[in-house]
Amino acid sequence: MSSTTEAPQAAAAAPAAATTAGESSQQGQAQVQGQKKWQNGGNKPNGNKRSFQGGQGGGRGKDKQRKSKRERNITEGSSEEVLAFDVQALIALRKESLPDAPAPTAGEEVKDGEENGEPQTETQAPSETLPETFTEIEVEVHAISSTGDGLGFQLGSTSTQVYVVPFVAPGDIAKAKVIRHVREESYSVADFVSVVKAGPLRDDARVNCKYFSQCSGCQFQMLDYDTQLSHKRSIVDKAYKNFSNLNPDLVPSIRDTIGSPLQYGYRTKLTPHFDGPPGHHKRNKPKQALSKVPEIGFNAKGRRHVLDIEDCPIGTDAVRLGMKRERERIARDFGNFTKGATILLRESTKRYPKKVISNGNANTTAATEETTTTEEVSASATANEEEQPPAETPADAVRVETDAHVDIKTCLSATGAMSSEYIDDYLFTNPANSFFQNNNSILPKFTQYIRDHVMPPAGPHRDRIKYLIDAYSGSGLFTITLASLFTGSTGIDIAKDSIECARKNARLNNLPESQCNFLAADAPQLFKQVTYPADETVVVIDPPRKGCDNDFLSQLLAFGPRRVVYVSCNVHTQARDVGVLVRGDGGDGTKYEIESIVGFDFFPQTGHVEGVAVLNRVEKSA
């Protein structure tokens, strides 16, 4: 699939790039047998393991880094690996557009290390003369990579060296400063300097932050939102082409990315930071306090330097007020700090249900049927109903009023504080510094989509599924919001603190343990404590960015639930894991087929996209 975020001259050739990616996946399957060999050998862009790209120096540290680089698994979905695929696809398009030229004389280099007893070889063309580092060049941008950075070629050159430049759009001509060359992968990393000529997709009037093009947070503020969503659909599409190792016929068309209701003011958690005094990290150096107010904010793009950020427009109003408050506190108390620190900014909501008058009697609205405070259910409902919102909203709080309730939103910064968050009428409490989805505006739409797709479409299997297992359940988001659909629901997590939090959230939402249960289970025993029949069970999984490990996937295939809903914050590792389930690698013959794949835009203005894949078990032949 071609991306609408490609420049006009590249868009015409985009179908060829998609075909190339598909053929590469098929070739990878033909060359190796099974997931283990594919992981170790590779469907890599250059056909070999990545060579070491370290700097100068030697000793044990270098050897250790060399080993980790060389042994990195392609299917980890790292930004480096994702970028390499996009670079090679663009180079292929570039070569197709250039006049035919004789192939350069190549030398053959024997790589250290062997694969299956055979020496690895790599064909290398004569070294190309590239611009000196830290010099400025003009780059014509052809595409946006799945990492969010622009990809282009030096203006006026026929070279196939790709330049990776942030904060640009296809069609732009940008001035960029070359920082380093990655010759093994035929690309160079560059800093954005300025726009020489804006392309058709770029409109800097859309930019809503004075730190854009400096801060490492947002990448797409110059693009309209439909273009951002289209690009994120292409990210999911390329993830399955490049990382699933599946025949393209086994992957359905990627659905349109579902957008966020808010494109700014959506983040309910931010963590700005500041550095300590020079040398504060050295063990034997006497501690000294900060001598001036530090720069407080986020890292500059491509730098470890902290960029001083006074305000962040993607934060919610409450979080932005909290950021202002905490900056003022640090400005007063900076002399008390002998090292750097990260500042926690987490929105928390206190809900006050409204009362309505019906037939002369005071009755609460439907919203009051749920427990509405962060206290345990033992607190009396009468006390909750009598509680009223403050007559005047505190200076550091935000008041949001609807027909059913009044919400007072504040920003928590204490590490041990408990935050409260509503998704429709569901209440969730979590430690303020723990993980929970950071865009509340999209969560009602997101959880409703899962509710609509957790069951099979109308057919013979729909009524058979009676049970839910929520693996990686955390504080119970899916177990609680889906429990009403099932006879029994069980959330499983290896973190006991998360399980205790989930149990509390179930009580806050009036869900009995018989309907909504949580178990703390060790990873090797994840499914052994659940007695649900696999034929009547759906499993929802929402792992961390690294995806599922082989042990978990083996357990899942051994259990063999009728249906799987895979939610992921990294569509590249999701594609890898879905490929394992579809092929049935390491299982007893259990395999799955993909029903649908869709992206959710939890973080507008950035290159991130969340993925949801729905799979059905393939029935074994009699």
From TrEMBL:
Record GO biological process: methylation; RNA modification; tRNA processing
Entry EC no(s): 2.1.1.35
Annotated function: Catalyzes the formation of 5-methyl-uridine at position 54 (m5U54) in all tRNA. May also have a role in tRNA stabilization or maturation.
Composition bias type Low complexity, residue spans: 1-39, 361-383
Family: Belongs to the class I-like SAM-binding methyltransferase superfamily. RNA M5U methyltransferase family.
Residues involved in S-adenosyl-L-methionine binding: Q437, Y472, D493, D542
InterPro entries per the UniProt record, alphabetical: MeTrfase_TrmA_AS, MeTrfase_TrmA_CS, NA-bd_OB-fold, SAM-dependent_MTases_sf, tRNA_(uracil-5-)_MeTrfase, U5_MeTrfase_fam
Keywords: Methyltransferase, S-adenosyl-L-methionine, Transferase, tRNA processing
Composition skew (Polar residues), residue ranges: 118-131
Pfam families: tRNA_U5-meth_tr (PF05958)
Name under which the protein is recorded: tRNA (uracil(54)-C(5))-methyltransferase
Residue numbers spanned by region Disordered: 1-77, 96-131, 356-397
Any one GO MF annotation of this record: tRNA (uracil(54)-C5)-methyltransferase activity, S-adenosyl methionine-dependent
